[in-house]
Amino acid sequence: MTLDDTDRALLRALVEDAGRSTTRLGEKLGLSQPATWRRIKRLQDAGVIAGRRLRLDPEKLGFGVTVFLGVKLATKGRVSLEDFERAVSGIPEVQTVEHVLGLYDYRLRVVARDLADFERVLRRRIMTMPGVGDVEANVLLSEERRPGPL
After folding, report:
1. Is residue 111 part of a domain?
2. Of 72, 111, 116, 144, which has the fewest Cβ atoms less than 10 A away?
């Protein structure tokens, strides 16, 4: 699918606020509401828009600490990647599970109420999982969200 400048502007506007009505989006882009709706539908049908997500503020929900964990599996042959992914996805504090290349096999985004709560999650939930070897923790200090290239 080829995207024109209007498609890109529409995608940027949706990334900024996906809950904005098609009427308001059209006003911002100089399009009618039906034309805006048709473009969004075409982008969804083509898979360019893969869904809309609600983004919650973890801090306002009481989760003041975010930690990125690099996890290296100790015994790759004994615990399948799927088993690890399924097990770690069952931990509520784990927000994302990413299978990566490099020093570690997985990168996890973990939220916790504070550092003591994170230590509890790490020691009792993650480190006790079968197959977990080396783990490296990086505490998030600040985050700037970027919509990506459009």
Report:
1. yes
2. 144
